[in-house]
Design a protein that fits this description.
With 144 residues, this protein is mainly alpha-helical. The chain has one domain (3-143). It contains nine helices and no strands. It is globular and about 50 Å long.
């Protein structure tokens, strides 16, 4: 099973989009799965169902930071490389989907009771979000 397939399977198990992306790739970067799942959980649903940045995107950002982020304040090269890779990820994701914002991708606001209810009724997590997870995994594979 490829990493892309593993990320999709993780999401289909019931983990959030951010968890599916981050936990699938973080072990290769030295972080255990349980810690990865805990760290990334709050970013699902556009950051705690706030409808902001898509969890698949924030999971990818966490991975880019884990691999390339600076560990010394004076390491501006690592900082700029990290930001450049994040921008590259966003450009590619936006080229596919037009936005990185969860509420725009889903067409409703998960931060409201009605929005969350409609997302579940319309099965958006399994119809739309699974594609966002798949595409995010494909993009992050190229970047990592």
């Amino acid at each position: 099973m490829s990493k892309v397939e593993k990320a999709v399977a993780c999401f289909k198990e019931g983990f959030s989009c951010s968890q599916a992306i981050f936990s699938t790739y973080s072990e290769d970067l030295g972080l255990d799965r349980l810690t990865s799942l805990k760290i990334s959980q709050a970013f699902g649903g556009g950051m705690a169902h706030l409808g902001e940045a898509c969890g698949a995107v924030t999971g990818a950002f966490l991975l880019i930071g884990l691999k390339h982020g600076r560990t010394r304040a004076e390491d501006l090269e690592a900082k700029e490389r990290t930001y450049a890779l994040m921008r590259k990820f966003v450009e590619e994701f936006k080229a596919l989907h037009g936005s990185i914002q969860c509420r725009r991708l889903l067409g409703l606001d998960l931060g409201t009771e009605e929005g969350l209810r409609l997302a579940n009724e319309k099965n958006l997590f399994q119809t739309l979000c699974v594609g966002y997870v798949k595409n995010a995994a494909e993009i992050i594979e190229d970047i990592l």
